[in-house]
Design brief:
The structure is a single chain. This protein has three domains: 56 residues, Nucleic acid-binding proteins (OB fold (Dihydrolipoamide Acetyltransferase, E2P)); 198 residues, Rossmann fold; 62 residues, Beta Barrel (OB fold (Dihydrolipoamide Acetyltransferase, E2P)), CATH 2.40.50.1070. 25% of the residues lie in helices and 28% in strands. A seven-stranded mixed beta sheet has the order 12-11-10-13-14-16-15, with helices on both faces. The two termini are 39 Å apart. The relative contact order is 0.11.
């Protein structure tokens, strides 16, 4: 079969790939289609054809799968913010668990038995406490579009609400529309401040208040299970994990490049009366060696909560050299997490004991994971990590 852009085909969907696209086959040729469900039979129009795969747009659903749901958002399918509103919530959790298992096996060589079920969000809609909307000049209507980037282009969808955001943020969207930016190309960050926390405007804080207590308890339970006394919180932001876990350890230290976040972390520590630790401004690569020299590695846990791109190889090599008793890795990008854990556990130095996914981002293809890595009972002779 020779495939070409513009052709339409009936396609049976057999899987959902990480990122949210459905997977079907035309003979041996793989075709990716968004907004479909496993078990759907759909009509798709090919929009991109490569040597080994193609991408198609959804024309119509010929035979729907029983796991389909009605999206709550009137912009769904246009707006690029959500990928799973057409699936019932139980199916979203099942898909995310399978995707995490597949990524960890393919990238890290870890068995699926290490992956716990996904912790569900108590509020699958109306949960986001921070969004970023954009303004873009629309030459056809001679006015601004204010909203999110489309699913199929870099154009902006004009919106007046967001169903996955907390309702107060939809009120803020309408306020922005009533007082629009002066021109296109501007970004507007809308945020609900976490109660009792100081968070500078551009500093990071978890965007789902509803599931955040469950995330903390997962990290706390893994920390207590290991029984360490000292905590080093890398990429600590405004000190969230350090301060939430300070009562479970003798001492804590947080490291963060964002100087404003560090100042806020110190004030947050004062507000909470957490006097058994401190915060240090600087890069992890610069500060971590000194901090780990001042703790007892066999009595220490290191928390890694890096950006989506993962950890620098220098950080992973340093951890392999210093050998803390435990590393708790928190990430919203399972692929880079699996890559980094593969490096940490190379040669049997560390062991991955558990990965607990949390659905911090319902209706989207994203998932937050907590991984517990322990120093092997009989580690191999000390040697630096060899990174590819």
């Amino acid at each position: 079969m020779e495939l070409a852009i513009g052709q339409t085909h009936a396609l049976q969907i057999t899987d959902i790939a990480f990122g949210g696209e459905g997977v079907g086959r035309l003979g041996e040729f793989v075709v990716f289609v968004p907004f479909v469900a496993i078990g759907d039979t759909v009509e798709t129009r090919l929009i991109d054809v490569k040597k080994r795969f193609a991408r198609g747009s959804l024309v119509r659903v010929l035979e729907p799968a029983p796991t389909r749901a009605t999206p709550q958002c009137k912009y769904y399918g246009e707006c690029g913010g959500c990928q799973y509103q057409h699936l019932d919530y139980a199916e979203q959790l099942r898909i995310k668990h399978k995707q995490v298992c597949d990524l960890f096996e393919r990238i890290g060589g870890f068995g699926s038995g290490l992956i716990a079920p996904v912790v569900p969000c108590p509020s699958p809609y109306g949960y986001r406490n921070r969004i970023m909307i954009r303004s873009q000049w629309d030459k056809f209507k001679q006015g601004l579009n204010i909203g999110f980037v489309r699913a199929d282009s870099r154009l902006v969808v004009d919106i007046d609400e967001c169903k996955i955001a907390e309702p107060a943020l939809s009120d803020q969207i309408r306020q922005v529309r009533a007082n629009p930016p002066p021109k296109g190309g501007l970004k507007v960050v809308l945020r609900i401040q976490p109660e009792g926390w100081e968070v500078p405007r551009d500093s990071f804080f978890q965007n789902n208040f509803f599931l955040l207590p469950h995330l903390v308890e997962t990290v706390r339970s893994r920390l207590l299970d290991c029984g360490t006394r000292h905590l080093v919180d890398v990429y600590c932001g405004v000190g969230f994990f350090s301060l939430e876990l300070a009562d479970s350890v003798e001492s804590y230290t947080g490291v963060e490049l964002d100087a404003l976040a560090i100042k806020a972390a110190r004030r947050n520590a004062t507000t909470r009366g957490r006097t058994n630790g401190s915060f240090v401004a600087g890069t992890a690569e610069e500060k971590l060696p000194e901090l780990l020299r001042h703790t007892t590695p066999e009595a220490s846990t290191v928390i890694l909560d890096p950006p989506r791109k993962g950890c620098q190889p220098e950080i992973l090599e340093l951890l392999r050299t210093v050998r803390p008793r435990q590393i708790i890795y928190v990430s919203c990008q399972p692929a880079t997490m699996a890559r980094d854990l593969n490096l940490l556990t190379a040669g049997g130095l560390f062991e991955l004991t558990r990965v607990v996914p949390h659905d911090m981002f319902p209706q989207t293809a994203h998932v937050e994971c907590v991984a517990d890595i322990r120093l092997a009972a009989t580690p191999p002779p000390e040697e630096p990590c060899t990174t590819p």
